[in-house]
Design brief:
Elements (H helix, E strand, L loop, with lengths): L2 H25 L6 H16 L10 H32 L8 H19 L3 H11 L5 H8 L3 H17 L1 H14 L1
Helix pairs in contact: 1-2, 1-3, 2-3, 4-8, 5-6, 5-7, 6-7
């Protein structure tokens, strides 16, 4: 461990001790449960700790608020995705409705897929979600994100390759095949 790494860890540790209670109090406004508040606050510090290039932080509360809000938006997006999927499943005929065990597996698969997609850069992930979740065409995605059609194609290929490697994708395909049969 280099001196910079140790110094960065110590800086983040001091920030944690000084600002964690404040951040938790601030997040209670947005989140319902204390566990969610603590999870988001802790994850904000983890992301700060894992920053690829440590920098000096002049306004720690502003930075922590920004990181925490991004994490909250990701959480809300995940919950919306789960809710939409469960709503779609409820609209399916009763004989093809999955069992509670299958629903639990599907929820785990969605969480795993979300973690997998979180490893993608922002525009690549946004391209994938706009295509697969929102159903936008490549030209619509290009206009929405302000990128070229070629970039949309490259981003989709990249994100699809990652999803193909993800085991949750196989489960989702089996579920989709069941519904269409």
């Amino acid at each position: 461990m280099s001196g910079t790494d140790l110094s960065h860890r110590n800086d983040v540790g001091r920030l944690f001790r000084a600002h964690y209670p404040w951040l938790c109090a601030r997040l209670r406004h947005y989140l319902g449960t204390a566990a969610s508040v603590e999870d988001i606050a802790a994850e904000a510090f983890v992301q700060l700790l894992e920053a690829p290039q440590p920098v000096s932080i002049r306004e720690p509360r502003a930075l922590l608020t920004t990181i925490a809000r991004r994490l909250i938006y990701q959480l809300w997006r995940r919950h919306d995705l789960e809710r939409r999927h469960l709503d779609q499943l409820q609209q399916v005929d009763q004989p093809s409705t999955p069992s509670p065990e299958e629903l639990a597996q599907l929820t785990q698969a969605l969480h795993g897929l979300d973690r997998t997609l979180a490893r993608l850069p922002g525009k690549v992930r946004a391209t994938f979600l706009l295509s697969r979740v929102d159903g936008l065409t490549y030209p619509q995605i290009a206009a929405e994100l302000g990128i070229s059609l070629r970039s949309v194609s490259v981003y989709m290929t990249r994100s699809q390759a990652l999803c193909d490697r993800h085991s949750a994708n196989q489960f989702l395909n089996r579920l989709t095949d069941k519904r269409s049969a």
